[in-house]
Protein backbone atom coordinates (compact mmCIF):
# COMPACT_ATOMS: atom_id res chain seq x y z
CA UNK A 1 0.00 0.00 0.00
CA UNK A 2 2.78 2.45 0.96
CA UNK A 3 6.24 1.92 -0.45
CA UNK A 4 9.21 3.97 0.73
CA UNK A 5 12.44 3.72 -1.28
CA UNK A 6 15.88 5.10 -0.38
CA UNK A 7 14.37 7.61 2.04
CA UNK A 8 16.77 9.96 3.78
CA UNK A 9 16.05 13.10 5.74
CA UNK A 10 18.74 15.42 7.07
CA UNK A 11 18.67 18.70 8.97
CA UNK A 12 21.66 20.98 8.42
CA UNK A 13 23.55 18.07 6.86
CA UNK A 14 22.91 15.75 9.82
CA UNK A 15 20.91 12.63 8.92
CA UNK A 16 17.97 12.10 11.25
CA UNK A 17 16.26 9.29 9.38
CA UNK A 18 17.49 6.79 6.81
CA UNK A 19 15.05 4.19 5.50
CA UNK A 20 16.43 2.27 2.50
CA UNK A 21 13.26 0.20 1.98
CA UNK A 22 9.90 0.11 3.74
CA UNK A 23 6.63 -1.46 2.66
CA UNK A 24 3.42 -1.00 4.55
CA UNK A 25 0.57 -3.42 3.96
CA UNK A 26 -3.08 -2.43 4.39
CA UNK A 27 -4.15 -2.30 8.03
CA UNK A 28 -3.79 -0.23 11.20
CA UNK A 29 -0.16 0.24 12.12
CA UNK A 30 1.59 1.69 15.14
CA UNK A 31 4.88 3.56 14.98
CA UNK A 32 6.79 4.06 18.19
CA UNK A 33 9.98 5.81 19.11
CA UNK A 34 11.45 8.00 21.82
CA UNK A 35 11.01 11.80 21.68
CA UNK A 36 13.00 13.26 18.83
CA UNK A 37 13.49 9.91 17.11
CA UNK A 38 11.93 11.24 13.89
CA UNK A 39 8.31 9.99 13.93
CA UNK A 40 6.81 13.38 13.06
CA UNK A 41 9.54 13.96 10.46
CA UNK A 42 8.61 10.66 8.81
CA UNK A 43 4.90 11.44 8.92
CA UNK A 44 5.41 14.92 7.52
CA UNK A 45 7.54 13.52 4.69
CA UNK A 46 4.88 10.95 3.78
CA UNK A 47 2.25 13.70 3.93
CA UNK A 48 4.29 15.74 1.44
CA UNK A 49 4.84 18.55 3.94
CA UNK A 50 8.63 18.52 3.87
CA UNK A 51 11.26 17.72 1.25
CA UNK A 52 13.46 14.62 1.55
CA UNK A 53 15.65 12.36 -0.57
CA UNK A 54 14.07 9.22 -2.00
CA UNK A 55 10.65 8.12 -3.20
CA UNK A 56 7.35 7.48 -1.47
CA UNK A 57 4.73 5.57 -3.48
CA UNK A 58 1.09 4.96 -2.69
CA UNK A 59 -0.43 1.81 -4.16
CA UNK A 60 2.49 1.67 -6.65
CA UNK A 61 0.69 4.36 -8.63
CA UNK A 62 1.13 7.79 -7.06
CA UNK A 63 4.45 9.20 -5.93
CA UNK A 64 4.50 12.17 -3.55
CA UNK A 65 6.79 14.35 -5.71
CA UNK A 66 5.73 13.20 -9.17
CA UNK A 67 1.97 13.19 -8.54
CA UNK A 68 1.62 15.89 -5.88
CA UNK A 69 -2.14 16.47 -6.26
CA UNK A 70 -3.28 12.84 -6.66
CA UNK A 71 -1.03 11.68 -3.80
CA UNK A 72 -2.19 14.39 -1.38
CA UNK A 73 -5.81 13.66 -2.21
CA UNK A 74 -5.28 10.16 -0.80
CA UNK A 75 -2.92 10.73 2.12
CA UNK A 76 -4.06 12.69 5.18
CA UNK A 77 -2.15 13.72 8.25
CA UNK A 78 -3.14 15.13 11.65
CA UNK A 79 -0.35 16.88 13.55
CA UNK A 80 0.54 15.97 17.13
CA UNK A 81 0.75 19.58 18.29
CA UNK A 82 -0.95 21.71 15.65
CA UNK A 83 -0.30 25.43 15.39
CA UNK A 84 -2.94 27.48 13.59
CA UNK A 85 -3.40 31.26 13.28
CA UNK A 86 -5.21 32.25 16.47
CA UNK A 87 -7.77 34.50 14.76
CA UNK A 88 -9.07 31.72 12.48
CA UNK A 89 -11.79 29.36 13.66
CA UNK A 90 -12.08 25.60 13.26
CA UNK A 91 -14.94 26.50 10.90
CA UNK A 92 -12.56 28.44 8.62
CA UNK A 93 -9.94 25.67 8.66
CA UNK A 94 -12.31 22.73 8.27
CA UNK A 95 -14.26 24.44 5.45
CA UNK A 96 -11.03 25.13 3.54
CA UNK A 97 -9.56 21.63 4.00
CA UNK A 98 -12.90 19.89 3.31
CA UNK A 99 -13.16 21.67 -0.04
CA UNK A 100 -9.52 20.95 -0.95
CA UNK A 101 -9.79 17.27 0.03
CA UNK A 102 -13.18 16.97 -1.75
CA UNK A 103 -15.02 15.84 1.37
CA UNK A 104 -18.26 13.99 0.63
CA UNK A 105 -21.49 15.70 1.55
CA UNK A 106 -22.37 15.30 5.23
CA UNK A 107 -18.85 14.27 6.30
CA UNK A 108 -18.05 17.55 8.06
CA UNK A 109 -21.30 17.45 10.06
CA UNK A 110 -20.67 13.81 11.00
CA UNK A 111 -17.13 14.51 12.25
CA UNK A 112 -18.25 17.59 14.15
CA UNK A 113 -20.86 15.54 15.94
CA UNK A 114 -18.54 12.60 16.64
CA UNK A 115 -15.82 14.77 18.11
CA UNK A 116 -18.29 17.16 19.70
CA UNK A 117 -16.91 20.51 18.54
CA UNK A 118 -20.17 22.19 17.49
CA UNK A 119 -20.22 24.42 20.57
CA UNK A 120 -16.91 26.14 19.79
CA UNK A 121 -16.06 25.60 16.14
CA UNK A 122 -16.92 29.15 15.12
CA UNK A 123 -14.80 30.67 17.89
CA UNK A 124 -11.21 31.78 17.13
CA UNK A 125 -8.56 29.10 17.62
CA UNK A 126 -6.76 31.42 20.05
CA UNK A 127 -9.50 30.72 22.62
CA UNK A 128 -9.18 26.91 22.39
CA UNK A 129 -7.78 24.56 24.99
CA UNK A 130 -5.18 22.02 23.82
CA UNK A 131 -7.91 19.35 23.65
CA UNK A 132 -10.15 21.51 21.46
CA UNK A 133 -7.17 22.21 19.20
CA UNK A 134 -6.38 18.52 18.99
CA UNK A 135 -9.96 17.66 18.03
CA UNK A 136 -9.79 20.26 15.24
CA UNK A 137 -6.55 18.73 13.97
CA UNK A 138 -8.06 15.21 14.08
CA UNK A 139 -11.09 16.32 12.07
CA UNK A 140 -8.80 17.80 9.41
CA UNK A 141 -7.05 14.42 9.26
CA UNK A 142 -10.27 12.54 8.51
CA UNK A 143 -11.61 14.83 5.77
CA UNK A 144 -12.08 13.62 2.20
CA UNK A 145 -11.82 10.07 0.92
CA UNK A 146 -8.23 9.15 1.76
CA UNK A 147 -6.51 5.81 1.34
CA UNK A 148 -4.10 6.42 4.20
CA UNK A 149 -4.57 8.53 7.34
CA UNK A 150 -1.61 9.27 9.59
CA UNK A 151 -2.42 10.43 13.10
CA UNK A 152 0.45 11.72 15.18
CA UNK A 153 -0.26 11.13 18.88
CA UNK A 154 -4.04 11.01 18.34
CA UNK A 155 -4.92 10.26 21.96
CA UNK A 156 -3.04 13.02 23.79
CA UNK A 157 -4.78 16.01 25.43
CA UNK A 158 -8.33 14.76 24.64
CA UNK A 159 -10.75 13.47 27.28
CA UNK A 160 -11.71 9.78 27.78
CA UNK A 161 -14.93 10.12 25.83
CA UNK A 162 -13.11 11.69 22.90
CA UNK A 163 -10.48 8.91 23.03
CA UNK A 164 -13.23 6.31 22.70
CA UNK A 165 -14.83 8.27 19.84
CA UNK A 166 -11.51 8.59 17.98
CA UNK A 167 -10.92 4.84 18.32
CA UNK A 168 -14.42 4.12 16.99
CA UNK A 169 -13.83 6.55 14.14
CA UNK A 170 -10.57 4.83 13.20
CA UNK A 171 -12.31 1.46 13.30
CA UNK A 172 -15.24 2.71 11.19
CA UNK A 173 -13.01 4.31 8.55
CA UNK A 174 -10.82 1.20 8.45
CA UNK A 175 -13.85 -0.99 7.76
CA UNK A 176 -14.52 1.33 4.81
CA UNK A 177 -11.07 0.61 3.39
CA UNK A 178 -8.95 3.38 4.92
CA UNK A 179 -5.52 2.38 6.22
CA UNK A 180 -3.93 3.98 9.30
CA UNK A 181 -0.48 4.82 10.51
CA UNK A 182 -0.54 5.96 14.12
CA UNK A 183 2.13 7.16 16.46
CA UNK A 184 1.65 7.18 20.19
CA UNK A 185 3.52 6.91 23.44
CA UNK A 186 0.32 5.52 24.90
CA UNK A 187 -0.29 1.81 24.55
CA UNK A 188 -2.93 1.12 21.90
CA UNK A 189 -3.35 -2.36 23.42
CA UNK A 190 -5.28 -0.63 26.23
CA UNK A 191 -7.85 0.57 23.69
CA UNK A 192 -10.30 -1.40 21.56
CA UNK A 193 -8.16 -0.82 18.47
CA UNK A 194 -6.56 -3.87 16.94
CA UNK A 195 -3.09 -3.17 15.53
CA UNK A 196 -1.96 -5.14 12.50
CA UNK A 197 1.70 -4.40 13.05
CA UNK A 198 4.08 -2.25 15.08
CA UNK A 199 7.20 -0.41 14.05
CA UNK A 200 9.86 1.44 15.95
CA UNK A 201 12.14 4.26 14.87
CA UNK A 202 15.58 3.79 16.43
CA UNK A 203 19.15 4.20 15.29
CA UNK A 204 17.78 6.64 12.68
CA UNK A 205 15.82 3.96 10.84
CA UNK A 206 12.45 2.22 10.86
CA UNK A 207 12.21 -1.40 12.04
CA UNK A 208 9.27 -3.74 12.42
CA UNK A 209 8.62 -5.13 15.89
CA UNK A 210 7.75 -8.80 15.71
CA UNK A 211 5.38 -10.04 18.44
CA UNK A 212 6.79 -12.35 21.08
CA UNK B 1 19.04 57.60 6.55
CA UNK B 2 17.08 56.92 3.36
CA UNK B 3 20.11 57.44 1.23
CA UNK B 4 22.45 55.57 3.56
CA UNK B 5 25.03 53.84 1.40
CA UNK B 6 23.62 55.29 -1.81
CA UNK B 7 24.41 59.01 -1.63
CA UNK B 8 27.92 60.20 -0.82
CA UNK B 9 28.94 60.99 2.76
CA UNK B 10 29.62 64.62 1.81
CA UNK B 11 26.02 64.93 0.65
CA UNK B 12 24.79 63.44 3.93
CA UNK B 13 26.82 66.04 5.83
CA UNK B 14 25.56 68.88 3.65
CA UNK B 15 21.91 67.84 4.11
CA UNK B 16 22.02 67.33 7.87
CA UNK B 17 24.05 70.51 8.45
CA UNK B 18 21.32 72.38 6.64
CA UNK B 19 18.71 70.59 8.75
CA UNK B 20 20.50 71.43 12.00
CA UNK B 21 20.76 75.10 11.09
CA UNK B 22 16.98 75.12 10.59
CA UNK B 23 15.36 73.01 13.37
CA UNK B 24 12.04 72.89 11.49
CA UNK B 25 13.79 70.78 8.81
CA UNK B 26 15.19 68.62 11.61
CA UNK B 27 11.60 67.64 12.34
CA UNK B 28 11.55 65.67 9.05
CA UNK B 29 14.47 63.61 10.37
CA UNK B 30 12.57 63.06 13.62
CA UNK B 31 9.45 61.98 11.73
CA UNK B 32 11.42 59.42 9.72
CA UNK B 33 13.30 58.16 12.77
CA UNK B 34 10.04 57.84 14.70
CA UNK B 35 8.83 55.41 12.03
CA UNK B 36 11.96 53.37 12.59
CA UNK B 37 11.51 53.40 16.38
CA UNK B 38 7.87 52.27 16.02
CA UNK B 39 9.05 49.51 13.76
CA UNK B 40 11.45 48.26 16.48
CA UNK B 41 8.66 48.44 19.09
CA UNK B 42 6.40 46.47 16.75
CA UNK B 43 9.15 43.88 16.36
CA UNK B 44 9.49 43.42 20.15
CA UNK B 45 5.70 43.21 20.53
CA UNK B 46 5.54 40.62 17.76
CA UNK B 47 8.18 38.48 19.49
CA UNK B 48 6.43 38.63 22.86
CA UNK B 49 3.12 37.60 21.31
CA UNK B 50 4.56 34.69 19.33
CA UNK B 51 3.37 31.36 20.80
CA UNK B 52 6.92 29.97 20.77
CA UNK B 53 8.22 32.86 22.90
CA UNK B 54 5.53 32.92 25.60
CA UNK B 55 8.23 32.09 28.16
CA UNK B 56 9.55 35.65 27.67
CA UNK B 57 6.66 36.88 29.80
CA UNK B 58 8.53 35.54 32.83
CA UNK B 59 10.63 38.64 32.35
CA UNK B 60 8.02 40.39 34.46
CA UNK B 61 9.31 38.49 37.51
CA UNK B 62 12.65 40.32 37.31
CA UNK B 63 12.95 43.31 39.72
CA UNK B 64 11.82 46.63 38.22
CA UNK B 65 15.22 48.40 38.27
CA UNK B 66 16.91 45.49 36.55
CA UNK B 67 14.05 45.27 34.09
CA UNK B 68 14.26 48.96 33.22
CA UNK B 69 18.00 48.63 32.64
CA UNK B 70 17.35 45.68 30.33
CA UNK B 71 14.64 47.55 28.42
CA UNK B 72 16.96 50.54 27.95
CA UNK B 73 19.71 48.22 26.68
CA UNK B 74 17.28 46.50 24.28
CA UNK B 75 15.86 49.81 23.10
CA UNK B 76 19.29 51.43 22.56
CA UNK B 77 20.51 48.34 20.69
CA UNK B 78 17.49 48.37 18.41
CA UNK B 79 17.74 52.09 17.58
CA UNK B 80 21.52 51.93 17.21
CA UNK B 81 21.54 52.60 13.42
CA UNK B 82 19.75 55.95 13.82
CA UNK B 83 21.50 56.71 17.11
CA UNK B 84 24.90 56.29 15.43
CA UNK B 85 23.74 58.58 12.64
CA UNK B 86 22.64 61.16 15.23
CA UNK B 87 26.06 60.93 16.91
CA UNK B 88 27.65 61.67 13.55
CA UNK B 89 25.36 64.69 13.17
CA UNK B 90 26.18 65.83 16.74
CA UNK B 91 29.89 65.77 15.99
CA UNK B 92 29.35 68.46 13.34
CA UNK B 93 26.80 70.28 15.48
CA UNK B 94 29.28 70.63 18.38
CA UNK B 95 31.90 72.04 16.02
CA UNK B 96 29.38 74.55 14.71
CA UNK B 97 28.02 75.20 18.22
CA UNK B 98 24.45 74.39 17.11
CA UNK B 99 23.17 73.85 20.67
CA UNK B 100 19.47 73.96 19.77
CA UNK B 101 19.93 71.09 17.30
CA UNK B 102 21.95 69.10 19.84
CA UNK B 103 19.31 69.62 22.53
CA UNK B 104 16.66 68.56 20.01
CA UNK B 105 18.54 65.36 19.21
CA UNK B 106 19.04 64.53 22.92
CA UNK B 107 15.39 65.21 23.73
CA UNK B 108 14.19 63.16 20.75
CA UNK B 109 16.20 60.08 21.68
CA UNK B 110 15.43 60.40 25.40
CA UNK B 111 11.73 60.65 24.52
CA UNK B 112 11.82 57.72 22.11
CA UNK B 113 13.72 55.44 24.50
CA UNK B 114 11.36 56.47 27.32
CA UNK B 115 8.36 55.74 25.11
CA UNK B 116 9.80 52.35 24.09
CA UNK B 117 10.35 51.52 27.76
CA UNK B 118 6.73 52.34 28.64
CA UNK B 119 5.38 50.36 25.69
CA UNK B 120 7.61 47.35 26.44
CA UNK B 121 6.32 47.34 30.02
CA UNK B 122 2.77 47.51 28.68
CA UNK B 123 3.45 44.56 26.39
CA UNK B 124 4.49 42.24 29.22
CA UNK B 125 1.65 43.39 31.45
CA UNK B 126 -0.97 42.64 28.79
CA UNK B 127 0.22 39.24 27.74
CA UNK B 128 -2.84 37.24 26.74
CA UNK B 129 -5.23 39.64 25.15
CA UNK B 130 -8.39 37.85 24.14
CA UNK B 131 -8.65 37.11 20.45
CA UNK B 132 -11.37 39.18 18.83
CA UNK B 133 -14.25 37.22 17.36
CA UNK B 134 -15.07 38.08 13.78
CA UNK B 135 -18.31 40.00 13.82
CA UNK B 136 -19.04 40.07 10.10
CA UNK B 137 -20.00 37.15 7.84
CA UNK B 138 -19.63 34.66 10.69
CA UNK B 139 -21.53 32.01 8.78
CA UNK B 140 -19.13 32.24 5.85
CA UNK B 141 -15.68 30.72 6.22
CA UNK B 142 -12.77 33.07 5.61
CA UNK B 143 -11.38 32.35 2.11
CA UNK B 144 -7.85 30.91 2.14
CA UNK B 145 -6.16 33.85 0.32
CA UNK B 146 -7.36 36.12 3.13
CA UNK B 147 -5.66 34.07 5.89
CA UNK B 148 -2.42 35.99 5.35
CA UNK B 149 -4.13 39.35 4.81
CA UNK B 150 -5.90 38.91 8.17
CA UNK B 151 -2.59 37.97 9.76
CA UNK B 152 -1.04 41.19 8.47
CA UNK B 153 -3.91 43.37 9.62
CA UNK B 154 -4.31 41.76 13.04
CA UNK B 155 -0.75 40.86 13.98
CA UNK B 156 1.46 43.23 12.03
CA UNK B 157 -0.59 46.42 11.98
CA UNK B 158 2.36 48.71 12.68
CA UNK B 159 4.56 47.07 10.05
CA UNK B 160 1.76 47.35 7.48
CA UNK B 161 1.06 50.99 8.39
CA UNK B 162 4.72 52.00 8.18
CA UNK B 163 5.23 50.13 4.90
CA UNK B 164 2.13 51.61 3.32
CA UNK B 165 2.83 55.11 4.62
CA UNK B 166 6.29 54.98 3.14
CA UNK B 167 5.43 53.48 -0.25
CA UNK B 168 2.40 55.73 -0.75
CA UNK B 169 4.52 58.77 0.23
CA UNK B 170 7.17 57.82 -2.35
CA UNK B 171 4.52 57.32 -5.05
CA UNK B 172 2.79 60.56 -4.16
CA UNK B 173 6.16 62.33 -4.25
CA UNK B 174 7.03 61.15 -7.76
CA UNK B 175 3.48 61.87 -9.03
CA UNK B 176 3.69 65.46 -7.72
CA UNK B 177 7.26 65.90 -8.96
CA UNK B 178 6.41 64.64 -12.46
CA UNK B 179 4.70 67.78 -13.86
CA UNK B 180 7.36 70.15 -12.45
CA UNK B 181 9.95 69.30 -15.14
CA UNK B 182 10.42 67.37 -18.35
CA UNK B 183 10.21 63.93 -16.76
CA UNK B 184 8.96 60.74 -18.41
CA UNK B 185 7.35 57.55 -17.07
CA UNK B 186 10.72 56.31 -15.86
CA UNK B 187 10.43 58.62 -12.84
CA UNK B 188 7.16 56.95 -11.89
CA UNK B 189 8.72 53.52 -12.44
CA UNK B 190 11.57 54.39 -10.05
CA UNK B 191 8.98 55.41 -7.46
CA UNK B 192 7.18 52.11 -7.99
CA UNK B 193 10.42 50.18 -7.66
CA UNK B 194 11.23 51.85 -4.32
CA UNK B 195 7.66 51.49 -3.08
CA UNK B 196 7.61 47.78 -3.85
CA UNK B 197 11.05 47.00 -2.43
CA UNK B 198 9.93 48.52 0.87
CA UNK B 199 7.43 45.65 1.04
CA UNK B 200 10.20 43.04 1.46
CA UNK B 201 9.49 43.12 5.21
CA UNK B 202 6.02 41.80 4.41
CA UNK B 203 7.56 39.07 2.26
CA UNK B 204 9.49 37.81 5.29
CA UNK B 205 6.24 37.74 7.27
CA UNK B 206 4.44 35.95 4.42
CA UNK B 207 7.04 33.18 4.21
CA UNK B 208 7.33 32.58 7.96
CA UNK B 209 3.54 32.72 8.39
CA UNK B 210 3.03 30.00 5.79
CA UNK B 211 5.72 27.76 7.25
CA UNK B 212 4.76 28.22 10.89
CA UNK B 213 0.98 28.33 10.83
CA UNK B 214 -0.11 26.87 7.51
CA UNK B 215 2.17 23.87 7.15
CA UNK B 216 -0.92 21.66 6.76
CA UNK B 217 -1.61 23.39 3.42
CA UNK B 218 1.32 21.44 1.97
CA UNK B 219 -0.66 18.24 2.60
CA UNK B 220 -3.57 19.54 0.53
CA UNK B 221 -4.14 18.52 -3.09
CA UNK B 222 -3.95 22.04 -4.48
CA UNK B 223 -3.01 22.24 -8.13
CA UNK B 224 -0.43 24.73 -9.39
CA UNK B 225 -3.22 26.95 -10.69
CA UNK B 226 -5.03 27.07 -7.33
CA UNK B 227 -1.81 27.69 -5.38
CA UNK B 228 -0.62 30.39 -7.73
CA UNK B 229 -4.03 32.03 -8.03
CA UNK B 230 -4.18 32.34 -4.22
CA UNK B 231 -0.73 33.95 -4.15
CA UNK B 232 -1.62 36.25 -7.04
CA UNK B 233 -4.79 37.41 -5.30
CA UNK B 234 -2.85 38.12 -2.10
CA UNK B 235 -0.36 40.25 -4.04
CA UNK B 236 -3.11 42.22 -5.76
CA UNK B 237 -4.86 42.86 -2.43
CA UNK B 238 -1.63 44.03 -0.80
CA UNK B 239 -1.14 46.74 -3.43
CA UNK B 240 -4.68 48.17 -3.45
CA UNK B 241 -3.57 51.37 -1.59
CA UNK B 242 -0.71 52.10 -4.03
CA UNK B 243 -2.90 51.51 -7.09
CA UNK B 244 -5.67 53.68 -5.66
CA UNK B 245 -3.24 56.53 -5.00
CA UNK B 246 -1.70 56.12 -8.45
CA UNK B 247 -5.15 56.40 -10.06
CA UNK B 248 -5.93 59.49 -8.04
CA UNK B 249 -2.64 61.34 -8.53
CA UNK B 250 -1.56 60.05 -11.96
CA UNK B 251 -0.11 63.03 -13.89
CA UNK B 252 -2.43 64.24 -16.66
CA UNK B 253 0.01 63.45 -19.44
CA UNK B 254 0.37 59.79 -18.41
CA UNK B 255 -2.03 57.20 -19.82
CA UNK B 256 -4.17 55.12 -17.43
CA UNK B 257 -2.61 52.07 -19.09
CA UNK B 258 0.42 52.87 -16.96
CA UNK B 259 -1.58 51.98 -13.82
CA UNK B 260 -2.04 48.44 -15.16
CA UNK B 261 1.67 48.20 -15.94
CA UNK B 262 2.45 49.52 -12.47
CA UNK B 263 0.34 46.81 -10.84
CA UNK B 264 2.09 44.06 -12.84
CA UNK B 265 5.47 45.55 -11.92
CA UNK B 266 5.07 46.11 -8.16
CA UNK B 267 3.21 42.87 -7.53
CA UNK B 268 5.77 41.08 -9.74
CA UNK B 269 8.60 42.23 -7.45
CA UNK B 270 6.72 40.95 -4.41
CA UNK B 271 5.69 37.59 -5.78
CA UNK B 272 9.17 37.00 -7.21
CA UNK B 273 10.76 37.82 -3.83
CA UNK B 274 8.46 35.35 -2.04
CA UNK B 275 9.17 32.63 -4.57
CA UNK B 276 12.90 33.29 -4.44
CA UNK B 277 12.70 32.30 -0.77
CA UNK B 278 10.67 29.18 -1.66
CA UNK B 279 13.38 28.24 -4.13
CA UNK B 280 16.21 28.93 -1.72
CA UNK B 281 15.00 29.07 1.87
CA UNK B 282 18.20 30.52 3.23
CA UNK B 283 17.56 33.60 1.10
CA UNK B 284 15.19 34.78 3.81
CA UNK B 285 18.16 36.27 5.69
CA UNK B 286 19.37 38.00 2.53
CA UNK B 287 16.16 39.74 1.51
CA UNK B 288 17.45 43.20 2.46
CA UNK B 289 20.59 42.62 0.39
CA UNK B 290 18.33 41.53 -2.49
CA UNK B 291 16.43 44.78 -1.94
CA UNK B 292 19.59 46.84 -2.43
CA UNK B 293 20.71 44.86 -5.51
CA UNK B 294 17.15 44.83 -6.80
CA UNK B 295 17.09 48.60 -6.58
CA UNK B 296 20.38 49.02 -8.44
CA UNK B 297 19.52 46.51 -11.19
CA UNK B 298 15.92 47.74 -11.44
CA UNK B 299 17.14 51.33 -11.71
CA UNK B 300 19.49 50.41 -14.56
CA UNK B 301 16.77 48.54 -16.45
CA UNK B 302 14.33 51.42 -16.02
CA UNK B 303 16.92 53.93 -17.18
CA UNK B 304 17.45 51.77 -20.28
CA UNK B 305 13.72 52.22 -20.94
CA UNK B 306 12.69 48.61 -20.34
CA UNK B 307 8.92 48.71 -19.96
CA UNK B 308 7.76 48.04 -16.35
CA UNK B 309 5.11 45.64 -17.70
CA UNK B 310 7.86 43.53 -19.31
CA UNK B 311 9.92 43.56 -16.10
CA UNK B 312 6.84 42.66 -14.06
CA UNK B 313 5.87 39.94 -16.54
CA UNK B 314 9.31 38.34 -16.27
CA UNK B 315 9.13 38.42 -12.46
CA UNK B 316 5.66 36.82 -12.52
CA UNK B 317 6.97 34.15 -14.93
CA UNK B 318 9.85 33.36 -12.57
CA UNK B 319 7.44 33.07 -9.62
CA UNK B 320 5.16 30.76 -11.63
CA UNK B 321 8.09 28.51 -12.54
CA UNK B 322 9.17 28.21 -8.89
CA UNK B 323 5.60 27.57 -7.77
CA UNK B 324 5.12 24.84 -10.36
CA UNK B 325 8.41 23.01 -9.85
CA UNK B 326 9.98 24.00 -6.51
CA UNK B 327 7.12 24.84 -4.14
CA UNK B 328 7.19 21.54 -2.24
CA UNK B 329 10.99 21.67 -1.89
CA UNK B 330 10.70 24.67 0.40
CA UNK B 331 11.49 24.03 4.04
CA UNK B 332 11.97 26.55 6.81
CA UNK B 333 14.92 25.34 8.87
CA UNK B 334 15.66 27.30 12.02
CA UNK B 335 19.36 27.84 12.59
Q: Radius of gyration of chain B in whole Å, from Cα?
A: 22 Å
Inertia-based shape of chain A: globular
Fraction of residues in H or I helices of chain A: 25-40%
Overall domain count of chain A: 1
Number of strands of chain B: 0
Instruction: Count the DSSP helices of chain A.
Output: 6
Main beta sheet strand tally, sense and closure of chain B: none
Shape of chain B: globular
Beta-strand segment tally of chain A = 10
What is the helical fraction of chain B, as a range of percent? over 70%
Number of helices of chain B: 14
Rounded Rg of chain A: 17 Å
CATH first level of chain A: Alpha Beta
Mean pLDDT of chain B: 88
Q: Which helices and strands, and how do they pair?
A:
The complex is a heterodimer of chains A (212) and B (335).
Chain A: E1 2-11, E2 14-24, E3 28-32, H1 39-46, E4 53-58, E5 62-63, H2 68-74, E6 75-78, H3 90-100, H4 107-114, H5 130-142, E7 148-152, H6 160-175, E8 179-183, E9 197-202, E10 205-209
Parallel strand pairs in A: 3-8, 3-9, 6-7, 7-8
Antiparallel strand pairs in A: 1-2, 1-4, 4-5, 9-10
Chain B: H1 9-21, H2 23-49, H3 64-78, H4 80-95, H5 99-125, H6 145-155, H7 157-177, H8 185-197, H9 200-213, H10 224-238, H11 240-249, H12 257-279, H13 287-303, H14 308-325
Amino acid sequence: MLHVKNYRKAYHGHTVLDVPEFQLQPGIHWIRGVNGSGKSTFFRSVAGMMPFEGEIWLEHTWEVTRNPVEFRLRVNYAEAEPLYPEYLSAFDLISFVAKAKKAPSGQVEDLIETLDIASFWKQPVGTYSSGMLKKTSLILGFLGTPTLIMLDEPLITIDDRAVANVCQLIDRYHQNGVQFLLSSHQDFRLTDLKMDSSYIIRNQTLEEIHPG
Amino acid sequence: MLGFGIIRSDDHVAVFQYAMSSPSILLYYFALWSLYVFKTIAFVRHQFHHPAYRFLHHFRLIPLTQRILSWVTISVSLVMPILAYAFWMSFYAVRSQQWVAISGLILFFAGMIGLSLLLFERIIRQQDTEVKVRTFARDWPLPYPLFFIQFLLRKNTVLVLITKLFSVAVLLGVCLLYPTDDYDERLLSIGLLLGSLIHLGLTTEHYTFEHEYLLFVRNLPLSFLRRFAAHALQMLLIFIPEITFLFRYLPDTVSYLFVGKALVFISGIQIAALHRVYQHDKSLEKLSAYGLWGFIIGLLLIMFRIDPAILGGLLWAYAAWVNAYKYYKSEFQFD
